[in-house]
C-alpha cells in the first residue's frame, strides 16, 4: 500500500521535474515529512522501503546490493538488509534541486546511521542493519573530525570543502584548482584513536593551496599556519588571534551587488572556518566565539550601510574580547586571590595564561607563597610558565610529572587551567591534568580549576577517547647522547606513537571552579549554561 | 540607637525558640524602621554597619547569612519611587514578609524530613539543634517509635540540653560521649544534624564534631542528613577546615580579647559535601550539588 503511494509520488515527481525549483523543493519537503511519518508507523519490519531522489553521485564504496540506477524511469527501491539509498538519476538538475535532494538524502542517511552510530567504527553499508531505531532523528550528527575512519564521512567532508570553494567564488570568477585543501593523515594511528585526525607538522595545509588564493583571506591563511605549526597555542591566545583575524577579514570585505551583508558575510566565513579546522581542530572557546560572531553578523539590520555595519562588527568583536577574556580574567583573579593565603605552596601544571595571571596578581598583592611548576613532554609548556613567574620574582620549583607523587605532600593547593568545561561538569584540559587531579585527591589536596565562562560548552563527554586531538607523532622522537631510537618508527609495523593533546577530568576530583561569575562547584556548570542561555 | 538595638537583639536571642538569624533579622527590621538616613545609599550603609554590629555580639554564621539575605531581599525590587519614605515603606513591608516567611521555615523542614524516619529507627544527632528537635517532634506526633542518641558536645554540653528537651517529648534518648561516635555508629540507622550555615559547595558548617560524625557515618555507609532553613545559605566556599574564616570559628568575645587564636578551640567545623547524603530545607529536599543551584537563584 505504501509502496504504491510512494511510487505514485515518484511518478508525479518525475513529471514535475521540469517545474519551478521552488515547487520542487516544497514537494521534496512534503515527501520528507511523509517518509518520517511512514517510518514512525512501521517500526517492526527490518526491511524499509524508501525511495529518494539522489544526485548522480558515484558511490563506489557502496556494495553491489544497490539496484542499478536508471537514467529516466523512477525505480522504487527495495532496500535489502542494507539501507543504502538509491534512486533514479535525473539529468540536468538545477543547483537548488541538487541541494534539496541532498538534504533529503542526508535525512534518510542520518536516520539509518543512528543504528550504527554507537560503535566507533563504521563499516560500509553492507552490514545488516540492526533493528530499526525507535527514536526519530533527534540525535545530532557526529562532527566530521571524529569520523576519520569512516570513508563515507570523509567523502562528504571533501565534497563540502569543494562546495564551499564554489560558493565562495561568486559566479563571475573562474579559477580552477583553488579549493580548501583536505589535509591527509600521517603515520600509523593507534586503533583506539583511529577516528581522529593525525597530521604532521612537516606537511602544512598550505602546500596544496596555489597562489594567488582568492577563496581564503591571507590573514586566515597566516592564522591557520600559525595554528598548525604550534606558533600560537593556548585556548585564549587562539581565540584572540582568531577574532583579530576576523576583524581584518571584515575590514577588507565588500558586499557584492545584490547581496545582503548579513547573509553573505556569514557564507564567506564558512570556508575560512573549514580551512582553520583543517589546520588544527577548533577549540571550544573558538567555537563559541564563532557562534557569537555569526549571531552578530546575522543581526545586522538590512538597511544598515556597509561602513556602519563594519564598524558595529568591529566594536562587537572588541567588546567580546574585552568582556569575556580580559575583564573575566580580572574578575577571576579577584576571587582566586581570596583563596591564596600566606605560606601556601601552590602547584600548577603546564602554562595556563589565566593561572599565571592569577599568581602574578597575588604576588603583587603581597601574598607570601611559593609555586611548584609541573611539566611534561613533549610540549614542555611548563618552562614558559616558569619563565614568566620567575621574572616576577616568585619562588618556583620545577618538576616533571613523573615526580608528582613525590612532591605532592608538600603542596597545599593545586591551580589548574582548563581548555573547556563540559556540560556534565567534566573538565577538558591539557593531557596530564586528570592525572594531577587524581593524585591530588588521593593526598587530599584541594584542586581549583580556573576557567572563563566563554569556554563552557554544551558537549557531554565522559572519557578522553571519543573526542580529542592527536598531535604530530614525530614530536615524541628525542635525541639523547647522539642516539635517536625512534627515528624509523614508521618501519616497525607494530609500533604506534600516540601524542594526545587533551584529557577530561571527572568533577569528583575538582573541588572548586573559579569563573567570572564567582566560585561554583563543578556540578553547577549546567546551571551557568542555563543562566547564560536565558541572558541571550 | 546601636546600643539599644544590640540589647534588644540579645534579648531576642535568649528566647530559646528563636533561631539566632531570625532574632538578627527582627532587630534589623526594627533598625530599619528607626533609621533616619536621607538616601538609599546611606540606608544601605547603615544596614551594613548594623549587621556588623550584630556579628560582634554573636559571631555565628547564621547571623551573617541572615543579615545579608535580609539586605538582598528588601532591595530586590527596583525601588523606583522617588520619595525615600515610600521606598522605606516598601522595604519595611518586604522585611515583614521575609520575617514571616522564615519563621515558618522550620515547620516546613520538619514536615519534609519526618517521613524519612521509619518506625523502629535509631537516630544519632549532634549537639542541640532546634530544627532537629522539630523534626523529631513531628515524627513522634506521627506515632513513630524511635530512639535517639545525642552526643554530649563539649565544651558547652549542649547535648545534655537536647536530651532534656527530648525527654520532655517522651522520646527515649541516650547521651553518649563525643569520643563514642565511632563506637555507636554501627548501632544507629541514620544520622540527622542541624547546620549553622550551608555553604556554596553544598557542605555545612556546624558545631565542632560534626565532621567527625560525617566521616564515621560514611565509613559505615549510614545516611547523613542535614536539616537547615534556607536563610542559612551563605556565600562562602571553604576548601578545607583551615579555609573557614576565623570570625566564624570562635565566639565573638574571644575574638575581641584573645591574642593568639591558635591556642583557642574552634567552635565549628566544616563538613564537605561528599559526606552528606541529603539536605532538608524549606526549598525542598536537595542533594549537595543542588545547593549551588539554589544559591545562585537566591543571590542573583
What does this structure look like?
Chain A: This is Translation initiation factor eIF2B subunit delta. The complex is a heterodimer of chains A (536) and B (300). The longest helix of chain A has 34 residues, at 306-339. Chain A has a seven-stranded mixed beta sheet with strand order 3-2-1-4-7-9-10, sandwiched between helices. In chain A, helix 5 (218-228) runs antiparallel to helix 6 (235-252), helix 8 (284-298) runs antiparallel to helix 9 (306-339) and helix 9 packs across helix 10 (353-364). Helix content of chain A is 41%, strand content 8%. Chain A is of the alpha/beta class and 536 residues long. Chain A has helices spanning 2-15, 21-41, 95-116, 151-169, 218-228, 235-252, 261-279, 284-298, 306-339, 353-364, 382-392, 404-407, 433-442, 525-535; strands at residues 344-349, 369-375, 395-400, 413-417, 420-421, 427-430, 447-450, 502-505, 512-515, 518-520. Chain A is globular. Chain B is of the alpha/beta class and 300 residues long. Helices cover 50% and strands 13% of the residues of chain B. Chain B has twelve helices and ten strands. Chain B has helices spanning 2-14, 20-34, 40-57, 61-74, 84-113, 130-141, 158-168, 181-184, 210-219, 246-249, 252-257, 288-299, and strands at residues 121-125, 146-151, 173-176, 190-193, 197-198, 204-207, 224-227, 268-271, 278-281, 284-286. In chain B, helix 6 (130-141) links the parallel strand 1 and strand 2. The longest helix of chain B has 30 residues, at 84-113. Chain B starts with a helix and ends with a helix. The A-B interface holds A 339, 341, 413, 444, 446, 448, 508, 511-512, 518-521, 523-524, 527, 531 and B 200-202, 235, 237, 239-240, 242-243, 273-274, 289, 292-293, 296, 300.
Amino acid at each position: 500500500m505504501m509502496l504504491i503511494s510512494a511510487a505514485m509520488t515518484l511518478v508525479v515527481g518525475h513529471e514535475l521535474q521540469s517545474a519551478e525549483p521552488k515547487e520542487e523543493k516544497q514537494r521534496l519537503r512534503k515527501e520528507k515529512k511523509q517518509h518520517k511519518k511512514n517510518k514512525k508507523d512501521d517500526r517492526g519490519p527490518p526491511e524499509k522501503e524508501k525511495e529518494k531522489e539522489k544526485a548522480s553521485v558515484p558511490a563506489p564504496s557502496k556494495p553491489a546490493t544497490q539496484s542499478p540506477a536508471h537514467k529516466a524511469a523512477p525505480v522504487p527501491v527495495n532496500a535489502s538488509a542494507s539501507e543504502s539509498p538509491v534512486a533514479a538519476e535525473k539529468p540536468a538538475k538545477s543547483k537548488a534541486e541538487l541541494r534539496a535532494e541532498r538534504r533529503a538524502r542526508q535525512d534518510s542517511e542520518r536516520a539509518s546511521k543512528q543504528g550504527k552510530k554507537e560503535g566507533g567504527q563504521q563499516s560500509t553499508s553492507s552490514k545488516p542493519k540492526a533493528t530499526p531505531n525507535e527514536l526519530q532523528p533527534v540525535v545530532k550528527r557526529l562532527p566530521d573530525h571524529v569520523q576519520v575512519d569512516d570513508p563515507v564521512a570523509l567523502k562528504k567532508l571533501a565534497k563540502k570543502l569543494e562546495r564551499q570553494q564554489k560558493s565562495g567564488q561568486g559566479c563571475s570568477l573562474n579559477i580552477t584548482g583553488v579549493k580548501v585543501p583536505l589535509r591527509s593523515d600521517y603515520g600509523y594511528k593507534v586503533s583506539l584513536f583511529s577516528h581522529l585526525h593525525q597530521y604532521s607538522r612537516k606537511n602544512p595545509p598550505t602546500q596544496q593551496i596555489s597562489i594567488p588564493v582568492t577563496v581564503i583571506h591571507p590573514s586566515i591563511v597566516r592564522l591557520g599556519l600559525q595554528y598548525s605549526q604550534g606558533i600560537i597555542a593556548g585556548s585564549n591566545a587562539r581565540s584572540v588571534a582568531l577574532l583579530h583575524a576576523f576583524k581584518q577579514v571584515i575590514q577588507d570585505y565588500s558586499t557584492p551587488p545584490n547581496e545582503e551583508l548579513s547573509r553573505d558575510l556569514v557564507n564567506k566565513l564558512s570556508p575560512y572556518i573549514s580551512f582553520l579546522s583543517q589546520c588544527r581542530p577548533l577549540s571550544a572557546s573558538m567555537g563559541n566565539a564563532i557562534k557569537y560572531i555569526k549571531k552578530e553578523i546575522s543581526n545586522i539590520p538590512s538597511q544598515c550601510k556597509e561602513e556602519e555595519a563594519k564598524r558595529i562588527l568591529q566594536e562587537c568583536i572588541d567588546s567580546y574580547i574585552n568582556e569575556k577574556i580580559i575583564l573575566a580574567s580580572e574578575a577571576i583573579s579577584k576571587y582566586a586571590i581570596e583563596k591564596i593565603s600566606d605560606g601556601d605552596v601552590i602547584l600548577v601544571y603546564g602554562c595556563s595564561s589565566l593561572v599565571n595571571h592569577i599568581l602574578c596578581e597575588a604576588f603583587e598583592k603581597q601574598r607570601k607563597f611559593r609555586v611548584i611548576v609541573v611539566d611534561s613532554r613533549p610540549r614542555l609548556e611548563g618552562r614558559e610558565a616558569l619563565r614568566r613567574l620567575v621574572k616576577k620574582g616568585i619562588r618556583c620549583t620545577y618538576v616533571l610529572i613523573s615526580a608528582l607523587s613525590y612532591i605532592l605532600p608538600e603542596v597545599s593547593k593545586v591551580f589548574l587551567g582548563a581548555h573547556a568545561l563540559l556540560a556534565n561538569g567534566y573538565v577538558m584540559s591539557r593531557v596530564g591534568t586528570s592525572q594531577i587531579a587524581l593524585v591530588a585527591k588521593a593526598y587530599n589536596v584541594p584542586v581549583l580549576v580556573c576557567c572563563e565562562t566563554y569556554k563552557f560548552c554544551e558537549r557531554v563527554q565522559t572519557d578522553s577517547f571519543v573526542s580529542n586531538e592527536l598531535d604530530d607523532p614525530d614530536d615524541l622522537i628525542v635525541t639523547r647522547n647522539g642516539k635517536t631510537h625512534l627515528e624509523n618508527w614508521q618501519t616497525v609495523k607494530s609500533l604506534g606513537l600516540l601524542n594526545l593533546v587533551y584529557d577530561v577530568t571527572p568533577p569528583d576530583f575538582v573541588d572548586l571552579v573559579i569563573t567570572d561569575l564567582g566560585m561554583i562547584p563543578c556540578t553547577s556548570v549546567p546551571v551557568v549554561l542555563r543562566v547564560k542561555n536565558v541572558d541571550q | 540607637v546601636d546600643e539599644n538595638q544590640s540589647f534588644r537583639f540579645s534579648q531576642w536571642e535568649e528566647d530559646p525558640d528563636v533561631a539566632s538569624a531570625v532574632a538578627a533579622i527582627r532587630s534589623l527590621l526594627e533598625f530599619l524602621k528607626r533609621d533616619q538616613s536621607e538616601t538609599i545609599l546611606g540606608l544601605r550603609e547603615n544596614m551594613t554597619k548594623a549587621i556588623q554590629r550584630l556579628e560582634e555580639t554573636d559571631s555565628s554564621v547564621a547571623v551573617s547569612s541572615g543579615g545579608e539575605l535580609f539586605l538582598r531581599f528588601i532591595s530586590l525590587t527596583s525601588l523606583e519611587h522617588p520619595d525615600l519614605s515610600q521606598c522605606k515603606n516598601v522595604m519595611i513591608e518586604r522585611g515583614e514578609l521575609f520575617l514571616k516567611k522564615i519563621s515558618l521555615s522550620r515547620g516546613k523542614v520538619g514536615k519534609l524530613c519526618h517521613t524519612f524516619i521509619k518506625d523502629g529507627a535509631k537516630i544519632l544527632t549532634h549537639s542541640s539543634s532546634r530544627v532537629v528537635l522539630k523534626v523529631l517532634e513531628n515524627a513522634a506526633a506521627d506515632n513513630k517509635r524511635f530512639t535517639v542518641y545525642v552526643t554530649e558536645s563539649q565544651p558547652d554540653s549542649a547535648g545534655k540540653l537536647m536530651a532534656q528537651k527530648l525527654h520532655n517529648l517522651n522520646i527515649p534518648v541516650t547521651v553518649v560521649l563525643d569520643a563514642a561516635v565511632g563506637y555507636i555508629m554501627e548501632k544507629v540507622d541514620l544520622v540527622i544534624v542541624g547546620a549553622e550555615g550551608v555553604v556554596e559547595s553544598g557542605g555545612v558548617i556546624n558545631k565542632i564534631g560534626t565532621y567527625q560524625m560525617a566521616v564515621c557515618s560514611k565509613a559505615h555507609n549510614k545516611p547523613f542528613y542535614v536539616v537547615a532553613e534556607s536563610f542559612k545559605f551563605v556565600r562562602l566556599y571553604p576548601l578545607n577546615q583551615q579555609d573557614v574564616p576565623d570570625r566564624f570559628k570562635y565566639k565573638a568575645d574571644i575574638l575581641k580579647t584573645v591574642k593568639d587564636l591558635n591556642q583557642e578551640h574552634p567552635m565549628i567545623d566544616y563538613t564537605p559535601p561528599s559526606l552528606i547524603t541529603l539536605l532538608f530545607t524549606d526549598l525542598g529536599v536537595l542533594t549537595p550539588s543542588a545547593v549551588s543551584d539554589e544559591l545562585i537563584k537566591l543571590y542573583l
